[in-house]
Design goal:
Blueprint lengths: L1 E5 L8 H12 L5 E5 L5 H9 L7 E3 L4 H8 L5 E5 L7 H9 L2 E6 L3 H17 L7 E9 L4 H11 L10 E2 L2 H8 L12 H14 L3
Parallel strand pairs: 1-4, 1-5, 2-3, 2-4, 5-6, 6-7
Helix pairs in contact: 1-8
Bound molecules: adenosine-5'-triphosphate and magnesium ion (MG).
Adenosine-5'-triphosphate binds next to helix 1, strand 6 and helix 7.
Length: 208
């Protein structure tokens, strides 16, 4: 079983969006569950709208993440954890102690970059008990033509964590799919480009 956590120190970076879409893509090939560790419970809300048997199951893990991960081990190949917008929260710390891979979405904005500097310390602290922890920054809401987007990679390279080559672009499908309780993979041609962003990211981060 592989445990992936979406973590970050900034509200609105795209943790829940990437969580439900990455989990939906992983679920195409392997049993996958989402553990919602964020007291806002956005992934759970997404699942309630979905209201169809095929959607990825989402389990409330706000108060008992460690237990929920252990419970998922025999049934699922992938566990994807949605975390609250603070790396200092108990839930994020528990996720970092337990996950194999932490994905950290960052928007191309200076404020988001600054908020991300705190993450390195928490990742290092978690490695005391979880020495194999991999942590990767993921640029989300990229708008390739803007100057900020062009500069973001350079800014991130100054942090002590690697940045994924694949970036997720800012696309309407990521918003409209939530309204429909779906992932971008289920939107057909409307979600094609967004689905490619998600699949490329999965190929890259799981290739090792
Ligand atoms: N790649 C994208 N393209 C377009 N819109 C996006 C993208 N990623 C996220 N969004 C939108 O940005 C907003 C914030 O995203 P999301 O809720 O996933 O962030 P979050 O990190 O989970 O926030 P919180 O910290 O509050 O949990 C949402 O309205 C979402 O639909
Ligand atoms: Mg969220």
């Amino acid at each position: 079983m592989a445990v992936v956590a979406l973590v970050g120190n900034k509200g609105g970076a795209g943790k829940t969006t990437l969580c439900v879409n990455l989990a939906s893509a992983l679920a195409e090939n392997a049993p996958t569950v989402i553990l919602d560790a964020d007291p806002q419970r956005s992934s759970l809300q997404w699942r309630e709208i979905a209201d169809c048997a095929e959607a990825v199951p989402v389990i409330d893990a706000v108060d008992d993440l460690e237990h929920r991960v252990r419970e998922s081990a025999p049934r699922y190949d992938f566990v994807v954890i949605d975390c609250p917008p603070s790396v200092h929260s108990n839930q994020t710390r528990a996720a970092l102690e337990r996950c194999d891979l932490a994905l950290i979405p960052v928007q191309p904005s200076p404020l988001d970059l600054w908020a991300t500097t705190h993450i390195e310390g928490e990742v290092e602290a978690a490695r005391t008990n979880n020495p194999e922890l991999r942590a990767v920054l993921v640029i989300n809401q990229l708008e390739p033509r803007t100057r900020l987007s062009q500069l973001v990679r350079r800014g991130l390279s100054e942090l002590g964590l690697p940045t994924a080559e694949s970036a997720v672009r800012r696309r309407v499908a990521f918003r409209s799919s939530v309204l429909e309780g779906r992932s971008v993979l289920e939107l057909g041609s409307r979600g094609k480009a967004a689905a490619e962003d998600i699949r490329e990211l999965i190929d890259e981060v799981f290739k090792q």
